[in-house]
Design goal:
Elements: H1 3-39, H2 45-55
Helix pairs in contact: 1-2
Length: 59
């Protein structure tokens, strides 16, 4: 096994773990955005503006 293959084998578990963590974080972010969307009708206008900006809807 050459040096690059050895490094790849050494870091593969870390890369897989990082990818799983990123996937979980993305799923949690989507879930949080869903909750924020549901909260919009129930929050003051100023907070609603902040939420909409985060969600990408600055209208």
């Amino acid at each position: 096994m050459n040096r690059l293959q050895t490094l790849g084998a050494d870091f593969a578990p870390l890369v897989v773990d990082a990818m799983r963590t990123a996937t979980k974080a993305r799923e949690q972010h989507h879930a949080a955005c869903d909750l924020l969307t549901q909260a919009l009708p129930h929050v003051p206008a100023e907070l609603g503006l902040v939420i909409r900006r985060h969600l990408g809807d600055a209208s």
